[in-house]
From TrEMBL:
UniProt protein name: Uncharacterized protein
Source organism (scientific name): Lithohypha guttulata
Family: Belongs to the peroxisomal membrane protein PXMP2/4 family.
Protein origin, superkingdom: Eukaryota
Classification via Pfam families: Mpv17_PMP22 (PF04117)
Membrane topology: Multi-pass membrane protein
GO CC term, one of those recorded: membrane
InterPro entries: Mpv17_PMP22
């Protein structure tokens, strides 16, 4: 708790001077943590897949099997590929791509959360309706657009072209958007209701470490299939 308090105090200090830059750096760091977690999970699943069936552990995230939520056939999962010879070495370039995406997207999130706050202000007599409006706008406008940006950015950054972008959208965009709607409405409801504006993006990024790890696994799995 002492460490958390110090981190919050340090964040507040930098935020008061440079709010946008502070949030961008924070988001980039959390994106790096998320992809590192994803690569460790993928390595774990690869080792598990190489074990005899009766010895394989199951990997559950929030009570949902990652493979089930992803709704992709086994051919799209690199860690279950029969030709797999073992876990791949840690991909630092991939982590840098995730950090770059978090850094670049922060100004968009920053403006978006500010707009939601201005368009749907909470008052002493009205809190529930404005919060529900914020969540609805966030999930039905920003979330679909954000996933489009994510998969496009990652594919292009990995050297893919138009064909790869289209293939990725055909295979994993809709399942990922459905998974998003299973998780994020509740998170954003809490975020918009009780978290101060300056902490809303870091809160989303912190809670979203598991979600970003899921996106990383989905993205890398599809890359192996292309």
């Amino acid at each position: 708790m002492v460490l958390v308090g110090r981190l919050i105090a340090k964040f507040n200090s930098y935020y008061d001077k440079r709010p946008l830059l502070t949030t961008m750096v924070t988001n980039a760091i959390l994106g790096g943590i998320a992809d590192t977690s994803a690569q460790l999970i993928t390595s774990y699943r690869t080792r598990a897949a190489m074990l005899p069936t009766h010895n394989r552990p199951s990997l559950i995230s929030d009570g949902i099997e990652l493979g089930d939520v992803n709704e992709k056939p086994a051919r799209l999962s690199p860690d279950l590929h029969p030709a797999s010879s073992g876990p791949q070495p840690f991909d630092f370039e991939r982590t840098i791509r995730f950090m770059s995406y978090g850094f670049i997207m922060t100004p968009v999130q920053f403006q978006w959360f500010g707009l939601l706050t201005r368009f749907f202000p909470m008052t002493a007599t009205s809190t529930t309706i404005p919060v529900l409006k914020r969540v609805a706008c966030d999930q039905f406008i920003f979330a679909p657009a954000g996933l489009c940006c994510f998969f496009t950015f990652m594919t292009v950054a990995e050297g893919g072209g138009k064909r790869q972008v289209i293939k990725k959208f055909q295979d994993i965009y809709i399942p990922t958007l459905k998974a998003n709607w299973l998780i994020w409405p509740a998170v954003q409801l809490l975020n918009f209701r009780v978290v101060p504006l300056r902490f809303q993006i870091p809160f989303v990024s912190t809670i979203g470490i598991a979600w970003t790890a899921y996106l990383s696994i989905s993205n890398s799995a599809e890359d192996e299939a292309l």
